Amino acid sequence: MPPAFADQHDPDSNSAGRDHRGIDTVEHLADHLAEFASGSMVIVCIGNTLAGDDAAGVEVGKKLSGQIPWKVFNTQTVPESFLMKIVELKPESVLLVDALDFGVAPGAVEVVSAEGITGQGPSTHGPAPLAFLELLGMMHPCRCAVLGIQPKSGDLDAPLSDPVAKAVDMVVHAFKYLAQRPQSATESR
User: Fold this and answer.
1) Distance from the CA of 138 to the CA of which of 48, 83, 92, 114 falls in 20 to 30 A?
2) pTM score, two decimals?
């Protein structure tokens, strides 16, 4: 049985073979991120740098490091190894950034609450983000979401595909855009 992904924004956006009509601008993505952002948000960037587009989350983490007011953990394929460091920070919210296969066009971006991922989740590199989020929830209950970037290819030793590289840039710009908003805009959500 394939992993299930329950889209909360557009019921048709995750249907395989359909055009993706989801998040398509920096401002639109920043609006979705603002729903989960808080002063003590932690961003967990996940991915495999040896597997093409699966490195999307790691690339986001590299580009965000030191550029935004939130703590960024670039965990590669082992987010569970950073669990205690995250819990010690006692964040109000945790956002995972990962390449997720939800059956839409390569480079599509979605932000979904943790409850929106069911089963093993659509992770492309191994253990699903759901397992990490369940552990986090047991140790430190907080608001959690996943920002997924649809991969094109997971070929070994391949660079990011053009649509995924563009999505990575959009995600980075959206975080920076959100960080520049007046504080009341990110704290009131």
Assistant:
1) 48
2) 0.81
